[in-house]
Amino acid sequence: MKSFKAGVYVNQGYYKSFQPHPINREWQVDDMKLLNLLSTADRSLGRLDMYSQYVDIGLFIRMHIAREATQSSKIEGTRTNLEEAFLEKKDVAAEKKDDWEEVQNYIHAMNDAVIQLRTLPFSSRLIRQTHKVLLEGVRGKHRNPGEFRTSQNWIGGASISDAVFIPPMHTSVPELMSDLEFFANDELNPLPDLLKIAIIHYQFETIHPFLDGNGRVGRLLITLYLVNRGILKQPVLYLSDFFERNRMLYYDNLTRVRTHHDIDQWLKFFLTGVIEISQKGVKTFDSILQLQKNLETRITTLGSRGNEARKVVNSLYNQPMTDATRIGEITGKSKATSYKLLEELEKLGILKEITGAQRNKIYAFHEYLELFK
Q: Residue 21 gets which letter from DSSP?
């Protein structure tokens, strides 16, 4: 894409903001390495989507979303691990509650957006609604959730004068977001969808249309776009893990587009992430199927109590943290019976107690959780 120009820096007095050029335009791809990566990414993503159709994905989708929520939030400095994401609020340490609530909001935002896609197109309206859910009741709740910014923001630095990057003036945001929306929904634009969403993510992060939460919303948009286009039947591809592990490359490649108009390098990085995460996703599904077979072998040793154990294990795929109260709700048995079943599942290595407490013990479906780490 040799003719690509990302935009221009505009003098605003004592600082320069970056004014991106519209992306709803004609694109020409002439890099064979990029096309080869695109071909591999399409195949890898197609295989991952196939798995989501043959496996009872409804059992596992919550784990995928929770994994994405913890990794995406981690990029922004939030520290909640996968086990903590599934705890009840009352069981979360006081100093971790704010982080925990941000992760929960991310999970709710993704779930809500996937539902909204049934009636709404991939649009500014959907993006604003997702942002509103993301910031509701957490840090950033006073920074206009669900509304595009009406003032200048910046990235990095203690003030705008030493900022690492200054997005466009707020007066440009509605027009730039409208251009992004048209580009996303332009059926006549022949650009392959994986390249389109890579460009959309770059442009969204460059516009930085909100006062807070832009990074998390921008990463959510990747999965939402692929679901909206029918490329994924279920939201099972999440690139935040790849971006987190390659954080400096992620930021450097986004920056290089603006400073050197090098969109090709960003697209290659993005497609590399799609390939890696898709292949890991397939391995995770394979491992889940193997784990299910292995667990069934162990459960059969419980004899008549096997049916109760199966009910518990099936619930753990969706909620991998449990306690005696939850076991009782699932099986309909007394607390004493529930504790006995917990002990048996712990002996079989299916559950692992994580609190070390004498009372109100919490158990983790640790083998399953490890597959997502």
A: P
CA dihedral 98, 78, 287, 50 (to 10 degrees): 100
Q: How far apart are CA 257 and CA 20, in angstroms?
A: 10
Residue 199 and residue 293: Cα distance in Å, rounded? 42
Distance between CA atoms of residues 293 and 135, nearest Å: 41
DSSP lists the bridge partners of residue 10 as: 17
Bridge-partner residues for 155, per DSSP?
A: 165
- Tell if the pTM clears 0.85, that is, is over it: yes
Kindly report, residue by residue over 13-58, the tens digit of the pLDDT: 999 999 999 999 999 998 999 999 999 999 999 999 988 777 666 6
Q: Which domains does the chain have, with CATH numbers?
A: 7-281 (1.10.3290.10), 285-370 (1.10.10.10)
Asked if residue 170 lies in contact with residue 10, where contact means CB atoms within 8 angstroms, the answer is no
Distance of CA 232 to the CA centre of its chain: 14
Query: What is d(CA 133, CA 126) in angstroms, rounded to the nearest whole number?
Result: 11
With vertex at residue 135, the alpha carbon angle to CA 177 and CA 250, rounded to the nearest 5 degrees, is: 60
- Model confidence at 310, in pLDDT bands (50, 70, 90)? very high
Which of 260, 274, 232, 317 has its CA nearest to residue 60? 317
How does 7-34 read in b/e, with b if 16+ C-beta sit within 10 Å?
A: beeeeeeebebbbbeebbeebeeebeeb
Q: How many residues does the chain have?
A: 373
User: Can you read off the two tokens belonging to residue 197?
Assistant: 């969403």
Distance CA 244, CA 344 (A): 38
Q: Is the pLDDT of residue 304 over 70?
A: yes
Q: Is 55 exposed, middle or buried (0-12, 13-18, 19+ CB in 10 A)?
A: middle
Q: How far is residue 217's CA from residue 352's CA, in Å, rounded to a whole number?
A: 34
